[in-house]
Amino acid sequence: MGLSMLEGDSTKERIIGVLSVTWPLTAKKIHNALRKEYNLSLTYQATYKAIKELTEEGILERGKEGYIINTEWLIRLGDFSRKIKDQLESINYKREIKTASKMTFKNHDEFLKFHVDFIEDIIKKEGKLDMVFHYRHVPYAFMLSEEHMKRLKTLMPKMNWRIISKKDTPVGKWNAKQWARFGVKSKLGADIFADSLIIMNDYILNIYTRKESIEKWDERVKELAKYEVRPFIDEKKRKNTVITMIKDKELASILRQYG
């Protein structure tokens, strides 16, 4: 194609620059133009050598009146440029959809409302939802409002919803039974690394929890008799909920293999 001949060779690039403005030109006129326009102190032999190589490469074409740029090379160069442009646009698009979004909610209830709305939005756009929770403990089902539970019930036929819990406790088993009533499958004592992560089709939501909240969570699920639902909910309401969200099909597929 001749592109490799130009890499790092300013003389050849400038020859093409001269011929892109005025053509045809003899080798002598090209040499004079290089010295005048670019203030180059090169010999005629060096100019002629570069012109000869460009001609052999198919970038220049020699006619009766002098040298011109080969139109076929220009066409190929245009195709190559468009290909590079398309590749760059594709890379930029991939970078855009993989940029993580950070969202902060005043309390956990606001996040729950966002989550239910997002479930509806994905199902509306993609027709179905494969959702997996990677949680430290099986979450308490009745933290959702009655309205949200009703909305989820209508969406369940289009959802495949699983909860993967890191801990296996009596409280977790009881919560898993409550979720089962809604058609949600649970697995306890799984080998997962996250404490609060949700996979929704190709979307990955990381929910960031304060260290003290995790410690209190652990304390309150040690024994079923000591599990206090209302204080746990109140604690959640007092703390900001921060999440990051990214869309990555490959990563979502890998995370689904855990548990």
Helices, strands, pairings?
Elements lengths: L9 H12 L5 H11 L6 H13 L3 E3 L4 E3 L1 H27 L3 E5 L2 H19 L2 E7 L10 H10 L3 E7 L4 H11 L4 E3 L8 E5 L2 E6 L2 H10 L8 H10 L2 E7 L1 H8 L3
Helix pairs in contact: 1-2, 2-3, 5-6
Structural key phrases:
259 residues, alpha+beta, Arc Repressor Mutant, subunit A, Endonuclease, Chain A, 2 domains, rod-shaped, disordered N terminus
Molecular structure report:
- The protein has 259 residues and is an alpha+beta fold.
- The protein has 2 domains: 10-93, Arc Repressor Mutant, subunit A; 99-256, 2-Layer Sandwich (Endonuclease, Chain A).
- Helices cover 51% and strands 18% of the residues.
- The protein is built from 10 helices and 9 strands.
- It has helices at 10-21, 27-37, 44-56, 71-97, 108-126, 146-155, 170-180, 211-220, 229-238, 249-256, and strands at 60-62, 67-69, 101-105, 129-135, 159-165, 185-187, 196-200, 203-208, 241-247.
- Strands 3-9-8-7-4-5-6 form a 7-stranded mixed beta sheet, sandwiched between helices. A two-stranded antiparallel ribbon has the order 1-2.
- Helix 1 crosses helix 2 (27-37) and helix 5 (108-126) packs parallel to helix 6.
- The relative contact order is 0.11.
**Major sheet: order of its strands?**
3-9-8-7-4-5-6
Largest sheet: 7 strands, mixed
Number of E-state strands: 9
Going by helix content, strand content and strand pairing, the class is: alpha+beta
Spatial separation of the terminal alpha carbons: 52 Å
